[in-house]
Amino acid sequence: MRFLIALLWLLHWLPLPILGRIGNAIGWLMYYAIPKRRKIALTNLRLCMPELGEAQRVDIAKRHFMGYSRSILERSLIWWAPIPRLRRLIHIEPSVPQAEMESGPTILLCPHFVCLDVAGVAARVIPVSTIYSPQKNKAFDDLLRYGRERFGPVRLFTREDGVKPILRALRDGLPYFMLPDMDFGEKDAAFVPFFGIPAATLTALGRLSAATGAKVIPVIATFLPNYKGYRVVFYPAWEDYPGKDMIAATQRMNDFIEARVREHPAEYFWTHKRFKTRPPGEPSLYD
Questions:
Q1: CB-hemisphere CA count at 13 Å for 31?
Q2: pLDDT tens-digit profile of 223-257?
Q3: What's this model's pTM, rounded to 2 decimal places?
Q4: Distance separating alpha carbons of residues 142 and 101, to the nearest angstrom
Q5: Are 195 and 48 in contact (CB under 8 A)?
Q6: Would you kindly state where each structural domain of the chain is located, as residue ranges?
Q7: Among 44, 49, 139, 143, which residue is least crowded by beta carbons within 10 Å?
């Protein structure tokens, strides 16, 4: 692991066009070298985008592997590149809503696009809080923590900590950087359609917003064309959210994410088994 970390450190010196092309080449190889993940990605795409031809879905899957590989190599920039250089690569639209983030409890909704770490950097104009998954390898765990902390104070929680520390952070004025669009099982989730398919979806976004009065501001990071850097969009805070119906609030989140995925289909995390948990009696969609 230390050798891989050292290799990543060397890569951060490369110009982004070279680093990005290396990432794309590795990702193209990964598409063929990891059949298990390739199958998951193509299964997800067949389920979510049946209107496309198989060749179109294969093209999206290949570009996803390339984008995912790029995001791993380009994370070296987040960890070690001089902050002024990194800031020049991040193009924010329309601007970071710092005043809104400071005006009261705020949840930054960041779906699982491959550039989500760039969105985290863009949001770091004030201290924030977020979920953190401890790594078994200490050297890699230390690196991940360093990467999250080098841009300013951040309060990190694990899923085992439960919801109380998150509520406390929101009430303390720390925006919560939230990534709720993965299948974590049936606990604290409801089967809410995503691309028309019932998906076990955490209802935590609506519940946290209701409990704290937090506004929800979505943020999405994607690649700029021609290796020019990254585009980070902060969307307007949602009005009349969450309301009294938590299922409807969760559906609103899924609908928003689906719309953004259709805009940048190759950059969503298709290699995750988003539909792994099925309603009672339904067979697996991945077997």
A1: 21
A2: 999 999 999 999 999 999 999 999 999 999 999 99
A3: 0.95
A4: 28
A5: yes
A6: 86-267
A7: 139
